Amino acid sequence: MHQQVLTTCKRVVVKIGSSLVASSTGGLRLDRISRLADEFGELQTKNRQLVLVSSGAIVAGISHLGLKTYPQEVPLQQAAAAVGQSRLVRAYETAFEASGHKVAQILLTHQDLADRRRFLNARHTLTTLLQLGVIPIINENDTVAVDEIRFGDNDTLAGQIAHLVDADLLVILSDVNGLYEADPHLNPSAQLIPLVSSITKHIESLAGASRTQASRGGMVTKILAAKQAGRFGVPMLLLNGETPNALGQALEGNPSGTFFASNQSSLTNRKQWIAFTLRPKGEIMLDEGAVAALVMRGKSLLASGILNVNGTFLPGDPVSCTTKEGVAFAQGLTNYSAETLQRIKGKQTSEIQQLLGALEYEEVIHRDNLALTP
């Protein structure tokens, strides 16, 4: 089944790990970049559309600036990214032009995708580039990103890009062969897991923390990326990018690594954006009747079903809906601020009108702005 997915997929998002293209001591690995460009260019000529998400800017900047260690201070990391990003993209451009392919650089923060208009603008730009045969090279905008707006790592960014461009497949090229039953560095006899049908608690427990500062997440973020992409209906393949032509072989039906199957999402693109791209700014706890109305009958959320309100948010902000046990089951865009909801929670429509003097919205969250989450 997954071999068929690999051989028939057309639009592929490929995330390239830092260690594949740069080192803090030796700078950019131009031979590796050249090899990858040749392989990707060959796939492009076989009617595949590639979108690259490449790490390596900070590491390349560290080498060029002559820093002795990976910087701990965010401004120094951003400075290294500013120096390294231009060198990284120039290396890609030179490598791809050698085989007659054009590339484009796109830098994003989470805020770019959290804003619906900017999300659609980025989507249209990337779609146009792909139609023109250009290979987009995307990275997080580390120079300006701070904790509130950053993706956190390029694995997470790649999962979001897979949704942004409606990819058929997400590929993460790393320096590991795939997901193992145990850490192969500690247990050399550990067995590779070739197929993950669903990401269970056991699968999540197999991930360990990153072993290097240059890699922000290690296997943890790769599994989270697979989980995220799977919600969008996009499967993921984790491959060792140090193996020549690993991706080309996989797309011909001879995969190595670990393949993560996807869920078939019934949500529209906009509701996927609400559910999985936006970060909730608050939480609304609902009674059993309201939960059933949203989950079973596809209704809008009314104030009468709200038990409690947490967080600080304004009209239009994303909020999480939870059961009275605290289990999050939906996310939506609220019509009211947290302050107003504290006043009207549990109230009937007639009572709300008396409290507020006017009833701008009958629904706290309209069903068109509400998405159920796993």
Please provide a written account of the structure.
With 374 residues, this protein is of the alpha/beta class. The chain has two domains: 2-270, Carbamate kinase (3-Layer(aba) Sandwich), CATH 3.40.1160.10; 280-372, PUA domain (Archaeosine Trna-guanine Transglycosylase, Chain: A, domain 4, Roll). It contains 15 helices and 15 strands. The protein has an eight-stranded mixed beta sheet with strand order 5-6-4-1-7-9-10-8, with helices on both faces. A five-stranded mixed beta sheet has the order 12-11-13-14-15, sandwiched between helices. The longest helix has 24 residues, at 74-97. The radius of gyration is 23 Å and the shape is elongated. The chain starts with a helix and ends with a strand. The model is unreliable at 209-216 (pLDDT under 50).
